[in-house]
Amino acid sequence: MIGGSLNGNSLLKMRITKTGRDTTLSRIIQFVEEAQGKKAPISRVADRVAGVFVPVVMGIALFAGVVWTAIALLGASGAIPIPADWNINAAFILRVVTSILVIACPCALGLATPTAIMVGTGLGASNGILIRSGEALETAHTIDTVVLDKTGTVTEGKPEVTDIVSVGENDQERERFIALAAALEAGSTHPLARAVVSFAAKNGTDGSAYTLTDIRNKAGRGVQALFNGQPVFAGNAVFMKENGAGMAALEDKASGYTEQGKSVIYVGLDKTVLGFMAIADTVKPESAEAVARFKKEGIRVILLTGDNKNAAQYIGNQIHADEVIAEVLPQDKAAVIRKLKEQGAKVMMVGDGINDAPALVEADVGAAVGNGSDVAIESGDIVLMKNSLLDVPKAIALSRMTIRNIKENLFWAFFYNMIGIPLAAGVLFPAAGLLLTPMFAGFAMSLSSVCVVSNALRLRTKKL
C-alpha cells in the first residue's frame, strides 16, 4: 500500500515497514531539494555589459579631460595654433568630463532587462500564465525539448468509458447490461468503478432498479453479487473464467481495446457474459494541437509516464509525440530529464502530480498545470492557470518576445551613448563649435530611459 490509497470495503490490518523518512513522498521531497541545490542562476545580460561599460565610460571621460588639457597647454605655449575664441580652461574641461559622465549614466541600460521582464510576466499573467521568475522567462525561449507527463497533463486525469460491446442486440438487453454493471460497481471507490457508474448515469440509469445481495469485492479481479438468486459479476477476463462464463466470442474484440492500453471490464450473469466496457483516460481536446505547435517551432516532444507501454504508446500516437518513455518510477523521472540535459537538450518539463515535482525542478524550465498538486505548483517555474497545454507554446512565444524586447532596449541604450558620448567629448567642437552642456546631457540621458521604458510597454499590446 502506498500513500493516497483508498480502502473501499474492508477492515485493514497493516504492518509499518518504512517510517516517514523512507516513504516515497519523503524521497520525492529529497529529490526536489537536491535538484534545487544544483540549479545554477542565469546571469543577466545587463549586468555583464554594465560591468564593462561603466569603467570604459569613466576611462573615456578621463581621456577626454586629458586630451583637452593637453590641447589647452600646447595652445598656450604656442606649440599648436588654436582659435582665440575656443577659451579652453578648467571650466571647459570640467564641462566636457561632466557631460560625458551624465549622458552615459547607465540608467537605460539598467532598465532594459527588468522593465521588459516585468511587462512580460504581466502579459503572461493576464493570459493565465504565471511566470514565477525572470530566469524562467529568459530561459524558455531556448527550449528545444518538451517532456509531457501523461495523466492529468495530456489526458483528462480521470478514466471514462470509451466503448461498450453488448452481446444483446436490442436496446433492452443493452440497457440491462449497463444497469447491472452500475449496480455492481455502485459501492466501490475504485476509479474504474466510478467511470462505470458515471457512464450509466449519463445514459439514464443508475442501476437502482436492480437489487443485489451478498455483494463481495474480489481484489484485483472484480466484484460479484446475487441477483434474483443468480450470480452476477463484473471484472477482468480472469474473473470471468473463474466464474465459468463463456467469453470466447468477445475475447478477440476485447484484445483490440487492451492493445490500445484500455482497461476492459466484463459483465456476466450466471454463466453468460452480457458484454464488456472499455475504459481509458481520454486525451484532452487541445493536447494534439499543442504538440503540433511545438513541432512547428522545431521542438521535440517526449511523453513521459509511469503507465504501461501499451497505454502510453496509444496516447503518444494520438498526440503524435516524437518519443514515448513509459513505466518510469516517480524518482526516475528526474533522472530522465537529467540524461536529456547531459545530451545537450534544453528541456521543459510539463506536469501536474506530486511525482512530477523532481522532474519539474530538474528541468531547465518546469511548467506546472494549475489544477495539479501543491507540490508540483511549488516546484514549477511556470504555472498554467487555465490547465491547458496550449499555454505552453504561448509561454515560449512570450519568452521570445520578451528577449527580443530586451535586445531592442539594449540597442536603444547603446545607440544614445554611441551618439551622445562623442558629442559630449567635443568631437564636433573644432569643426562646428558644438559642445554639449551637462543640462542637455541630462535631458538626453533621460530621453534614452523614456525610450527603453516605452519600448518595454509595447509588449502589453502583443497577443499570444
Written account of the structure:
The chain is α/β, with parallel strands linked by helices. The chain has helices spanning 24-38, 45-77, 90-103, 107-126, 134-139, 150-154, 171-185, 191-202, 237-242, 248-258, 287-296, 309-319, 330-342, 357-362, 374-379, 391-425, 429-432, 438-457; strands at 129-131, 145-149, 155-166, 213-218, 222-227, 230-235, 263-269, 272-283, 300-304, 323-325, 347-351, 365-369, 382-384. The strands form two sheets. It has a seven-stranded mixed β-sheet, sandwiched between helices. A six-stranded antiparallel β-sheet has the order 3-8-7-6-5-4, with helices on both faces. It is rod-shaped and about 125 Å long. The two termini are 45 Å apart. Mean pLDDT is 83; it is low at 34-43.
How are the elements arranged and paired?
Layout: H1 24-38, H2 45-77, H3 90-103, H4 107-126, E1 129-131, H5 134-139, E2 145-149, H6 150-154, E3 155-166, H7 171-185, H8 191-202, E4 213-218, E5 222-227, E6 230-235, H9 237-242, H10 248-258, E7 263-269, E8 272-283, H11 287-296, E9 300-304, H12 309-319, E10 323-325, H13 330-342, E11 347-351, H14 357-362, E12 365-369, H15 374-379, E13 382-384, H16 391-425, H17 429-432, H18 438-457
Parallel strand pairs: 2-9, 2-11, 9-10, 11-12, 12-13
Antiparallel strand pairs: 1-13, 3-8, 4-5, 5-6, 6-7, 7-8
Helix pairs in contact: 2-3, 2-4, 3-16, 3-18, 4-16, 4-18, 7-8, 16-18
